[in-house]
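sorry for the late reply, my laptop died twice this morning and i had to redo everyting from scratch. anyway the thing you sent over, i finally got around to it. pasting the sequence first so we're on the same page, its 208 residues, then the predicted structure underneath. double check i copied it right bc i was rushing
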Amino acid sequence: MTLLILLDLSAAFDTVDHPILLDRLTKVVGLQGKAHYWFRSYLSGRSQRVAIDGSMSMEFSLDCDVPQGSCLGPLLFVIYISSLFKIIERHIPQVHCYADDTQLYLSFRPGDDDAQVVAHRAMEACIKDIRKWMIDGRLLLNDTKTEFLAIGTRQQLSKLRSSSIEVGDQKIYHSSGVRNLGVMLDESLGMNSHIDQIYVQGLLLPHS
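ok and here's the structure:
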């Protein structure tokens, strides 16, 4: 049986701190000299305004964020959070990240109560350290949008002792299905939930 935790970051790209990012470009990637200056120039001098009903706000400067729709934005974000993997490796062996989407995996023997307790404690300790690391890095883990899925056969799932994971002050309960990078996953890793969703969406779309 496998526990899958999908972490959700609040406005992840918008909260990337420029001084921290520039420091990590040197320490993590090894950028120096002119190459480092190019990135510093790319990030500095940014500003934005807000337009509502034709009215424009005053311009204000930005000392954080990387453009999400750009080619460099996702790459810079991955560099920004790269040291997070070292935090996770202290607790669990498997993690997958795609830009600001992070999934934690931990397998254990179904029916073994001690193994289940160890797995849940490892997940909760890992998430606790992730939250602390993110606070230090000016990022915010959205506890209420974090999702928890147990994956296994029907017989294995019936032996699941605990159906919740503590994330900060929230208790996240086991879900029967979650969305991962646009794909609906259920407890058996089947595609029925995803197919059903596509079918419903097709019925709701206007037909010419």
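The mean pLDDT is 84.
thats about all i looked at so far, will dig more tmrw
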